[in-house]
């Protein structure tokens, strides 16, 4: 690291902190030449994460696709950007914690469903109808009834 004052590359690390998502290191440094203190951030870059599509094709993981899917399901629903960002971050962390660096697209879809169920039940049903390719109204009814029975069971405890 170069000192921002004198451009000397010799410095010492005074303090190191890890961000909440554990991907960014923040270091407080001091130049050995001019004693200027400055901060640096180092982001951990992991190897490329691949998504295995239903046909076996592989493509790079794109968090923007996850965000767009959530936003589409939540369109015109009373869910704020902060909640959407938190859901995206939860999915991103779940996917990036994988050791094998490959994830099936259906696993990502299930993660999206979990987040939507937590955020907004209408958006959950909306997403499920497309994701699970509902054929008729009875599948909507089954999904809603299963959600209600889960809610009823949790209320009884």
Automatic annotation (TrEMBL):
Cofactor (UniProt): Zn(2+)
Per UniProt, residues of the ATP-cone domain are 49-139
Annotated unnamed zinc fingers sit at 3-34
Question: What are the BP-aspect GO terms?
Answer: negative regulation of DNA-templated transcription
Query: Per UniProt, which keywords does this protein have?
Result: ATP-binding, DNA-binding, Metal-binding, Nucleotide-binding, Repressor, Transcription, Transcription regulation, Zinc, Zinc-finger
Is Membrane one of the keywords UniProt gives this record? no
Could you tell me what the cofactor note in this record states?
Binds 1 zinc ion.
PANTHER family attached to this UniProt entry: TRANSCRIPTIONAL REPRESSOR NRDR
* Sequence similarity: Belongs to the NrdR family.
What job does this protein perform? Negatively regulates transcription of bacterial ribonucleotide reductase nrd genes and operons by binding to NrdR-boxes.
Q: What is this protein called?
A: Transcriptional repressor NrdR
Taxonomically, what lineage is the organism?
Bacteria, Pseudomonadati, Lentisphaerota, Lentisphaeria, Lentisphaerales
């Amino acid at each position: 690291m170069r000192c921002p004052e004198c451009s000397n590359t010799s410095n010492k690390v005074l303090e190191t902190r890890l961000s909440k998502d554990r991907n960014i290191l923040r270091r407080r440094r001091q130049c050995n030449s001019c004693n200027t203190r400055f901060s640096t951030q180092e982001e951990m870059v992991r190897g490329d994460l691949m998504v295995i599509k239903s046909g076996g094709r592989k493509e790079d993981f794109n968090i923007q696709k996850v965000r767009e899917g959530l936003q589409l399901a939540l369109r015109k629903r009373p869910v704020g950007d902060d909640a959407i960002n938190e859901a995206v971050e939860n999915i991103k962390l779940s996917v990036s914690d994988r050791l094998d660096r490959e994830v099936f697209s259906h696993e990502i879809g299930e993660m999206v469903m979990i987040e939507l169920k937590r955020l907004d039940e209408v958006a959950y049903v909306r997403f499920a109808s497309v994701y699970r390719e509902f054929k008729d109204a009875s599948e909507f009814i089954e999904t809603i009834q299963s959600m209600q029975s889960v809610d009823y069971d949790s209320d009884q405890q």
